[in-house]
C-alpha cells in the first residue's frame, strides 16, 4: 500500500532545511562557479569523444506493455494517455518484478554495440522512482523486486568503462504538488505547491548524484507552465554545486524550441541541445554541443505489439549523419517488465557494433564535416507491405574529421573512383586508403585544381558504408 501523498509533502518540507532553494527556502539561488572555456572543454571532453550512447526507458509502464482497454498503442505515456486513476495505476507496482534483469548483460549489449554511455530513466513523468528513494514510497522499494537496478547498472557500467547517466523527469503526474494536477490524480489532496515540489525534486536529484555519480543528468518534462525559467536556472546551479563535473542537458531550462531541441535564444541554461526524433539538416557549427535522441521503433517505453524496428542500415546511417554534423546519437531501447531488452532491438545495434569495430576511428572523437551539407539528408518514412521502413538515401557520402585525417563515409559505392570538390578546405593529401584495410594499402590520388579524385578498390569493403581515409598534414 502506498503511503498517502501527505507523507511526501512532509518529507519535502523537512528536506527544505537541507537544500538550497528558490523563494520559499532561500533568498538567493547558489551561483554557478565561473567556468572558463578550458574548464568546460575538460568537463565535456568525454561527451564529445563518445558520439554514441544508449537511452533506456524503463518503468511501470512496461507492465501493461502498451495495451489497455482494447487499444495497443501505448508506451511510456500510458498514465497520461489512458487517464487512468492514479490509484489504479499504482497497482502496477505490485506486478513489477523484473527477475530477468541483468545489469551486466545490458551493459554488454551497449558495449558490443559500440555505445560509450547509458542514460536510464530514474523517474519518468509518472513519478515512479526506479531506485529506492528515501523521500517517497512511490519507487522501486514498493515492488516485489526490491533491488536497486540503478546501483547495479552504475556498477556494471564502471566495470565496463561506460559512463552511467540518468534521465529524471521534471514533470510529475503522481506528485500532489506538481502545479498542473491531472483530474484523474485521485491520490492528491490539498493545493499544489511548486516550491514544495521543487524541494522534493532537488532531494531526489541529490540522492541520484551522491549515490550513483552520473555523468549526465538528462531532464525532460520542462515544458509545462509550472516549471519556470527561474527554477531551471536555479536547479542547474544547484546541481553544478553538488558535482562540478556533471553535464546537464538544456531541458533543465525553458528555452528549448520543441522537437528541434535547441535553445531558442542565448538565454538558455544547460550544457547541450537535445533534438528529438530528428537530425538537424546542417548541424550547428563549432562550439555547439548537441545530441539527437531517437527510438528504435515507434515507442520509447516497451510496447509488445510494436515490432517495427528500424533496419541496421537506417540506424548506422543515422549515426554517420549525426557524427558528420558534430553531434551525438542517443539510441533508445525499451526493456520489458521482466527486465529483457527485446531481441528486435538488440540485433541491429549489435550489427552497428561490428561496423564500429572496423570503422570506429571515423566516429569517436571526430569533428563535423569540412564541406558543409554534402548532398541532403535521408528518409526512412516510407514503409513496405509489412510496415517496415524502406531506406531511401538521398545522399552519397558524409565526412568526419580528426587532426590530419579526413574520413569520407561512402554510402553509394561510386565504382572505380571517388571525386570530391575540396573547395580549398583540404590540405595536400599525403595518403589515401580504406579504413577497413588493415594494411592501409595506398590508393592513387590525383588533384585537378580543387577537385580530388581517389582510385577505389573494385569492391566496397562494407555493404552499407565504407570509409575512405585522406591523410593530410596536421594543423
Give an overview in words.
The chain is α/β, with parallel strands linked by helices. It has two domains: 5-362, TIM Barrel; 378-471, Golgi alpha-mannosidase II (Immunoglobulin-like), CATH 2.60.40. It is 26% helix and 16% strand. It is built from eleven helices and 16 strands. It has helices at 5-15, 37-50, 78-82, 86-89, 92-95, 103-112, 149-160, 194-212, 229-242, 312-324, 343-359; strands at residues 52-56, 117-123, 163-169, 216-220, 247-248, 291-294, 328-333, 378-379, 392-393, 397-402, 405-410, 417-421, 431-434, 445-448, 451-455, 466-471. The strands form four sheets. Strands 5-4-3-2-1-7-6 form a seven-stranded parallel sheet, sandwiched between helices. Helix 7 (149-160) links the parallel strand 2 (117-123) and strand 3. Helix 6 (103-112) packs across helix 7, helix 6 (103-112) crosses helix 11 and helix 8 packs parallel to helix 9 (229-242). The radius of gyration is 24 Å and the shape is globular.
Amino acid at each position: 500500500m502506498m503511503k498517502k501523498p501527505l507523507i511526501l509533502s512532509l518529507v519535502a518540507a523537512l528536506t527544505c532545511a537541507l537544500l538550497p532553494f528558490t523563494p520559499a527556502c532561500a533568498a538567493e539561488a547558489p551561483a554557478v562557479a565561473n567556468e572558463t572555456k578550458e574548464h568546460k572543454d575538460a568537463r565535456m571532453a568525454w561527451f564529445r569523444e563518445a558520439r554514441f550512447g544508449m537511452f533506456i526507458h524503463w518503468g511501470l509502464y512496461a507492465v501493461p506493455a502498451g495495451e489497455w482497454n482494447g487499444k495497443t498503442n501505448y508506451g511510456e505515456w500510458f498514465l497520461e494517455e489512458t487517464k487512468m486513476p492514479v490509484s489504479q495505476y499504482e497497482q502496477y507496482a505490485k506486478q513489477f518484478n523484473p527477475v530477468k534483469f541483468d545489469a551486466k548483460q545490458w551493459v554488454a549489449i551497449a558495449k558490443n554495440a559500440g555505445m560509450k554511455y547509458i542514460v536510464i530513466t530514474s523517474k519518468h513523468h509518472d513519478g515512479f522512482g526506479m531506485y529506492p528513494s528515501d523521500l517517497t514510497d512511490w519507487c522501486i522499494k514498493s515492488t516485489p523486486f526490491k533491488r536497486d537496478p540503478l546501483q547495479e547498472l552504475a556498477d556494471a557500467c564502471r566495470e565496463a568503462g561506460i559512463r552511467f547517466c540518468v534521465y529524471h523527469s521534471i514533470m510529475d503526474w503522481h506528485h500532489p504538488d506538481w502545479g498542473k494536477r491531472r483530474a484523474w490524480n485521485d491520490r492528491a489532496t490539498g493545493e499544489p505547491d511548486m516550491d514544495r515540489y521543487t524541494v522534493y525534486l532537488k532531494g531526489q536529484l541529490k540522492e541520484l548524484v551522491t549515490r550513483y555519480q552520473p555523468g549526465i543528468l538528462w531532464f525532460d518534462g520542462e515544458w509545462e507552465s509550472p516549471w519556470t525559467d527561474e527554477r531551471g536556472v536555479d536547479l542547474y546551479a544547484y546541481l553544478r554545486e553538488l558535482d562540478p563535473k556533471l553535464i546537464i542537458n538544456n531541458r533543465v531550462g525553458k528555452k528549448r524550441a520543441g522537437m528541434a531541441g535547441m535553445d531558442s535564444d542565448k538565454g538558455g541554461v544547460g550544457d547541450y541541445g537535445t533534438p528529438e526524433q530528428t537530425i538537424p539538416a546542417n548541424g550547428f557549427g563549432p562550439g555547439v554541443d548537441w545530441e539527437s535522441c531517437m527510438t528504435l521503433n515507434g515507442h520509447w517505453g516497451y510496447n509488445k505489439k510494436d515490432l517495427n524496428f528500424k533496419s541496421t542500415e537506417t540506424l548506422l546511417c543515422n549515426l554517420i549523419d549525426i557524427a558528420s554534423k558534430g553531434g551525438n546519437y542517443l539510441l533508445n531501447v525499451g526493456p520489458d517488465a521482466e527486465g529483457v531488452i527485446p531481441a528486435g532491438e538488440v540485433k541491429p545495434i549489435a550489427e552497428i557494433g561490428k561496423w564500429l569495430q572496423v570503422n570506429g576511428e571515423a566516429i569517436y572523437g571526430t569533428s563535423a564535416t569540412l564541406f558543409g551539407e554534402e548532398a541532403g539528408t535521408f528518409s526512412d518514412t516510407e514503409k513496405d507491405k509489412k510496415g517496415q521502413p524502406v531506406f531511401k538515401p538521398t545522399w552519397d557520402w558524409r565526412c568526419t574529421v580528426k587532426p590530419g585525417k579526413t574520413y569520407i563515409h561512402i554510402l553509394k559505392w561510386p565504382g572505380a573512383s571517388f571525386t570530391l570538390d575540396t573547395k580549398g578546405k583540404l590540405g595536400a593529401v599525403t595518403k589515401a586508403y580504406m579504413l577497413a584495410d588493415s594494411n592501409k594499402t595506398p590508393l592513387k590520388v590525383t588533384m585537378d585544381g580543387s577537385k580530388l579524385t581517389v582510385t577505389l578498390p573494385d569492391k566496397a569493403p562494407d555493404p552499407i558504408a565504407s570509409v575512405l581515409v585522406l591523410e593530410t598534414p596536421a594543423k
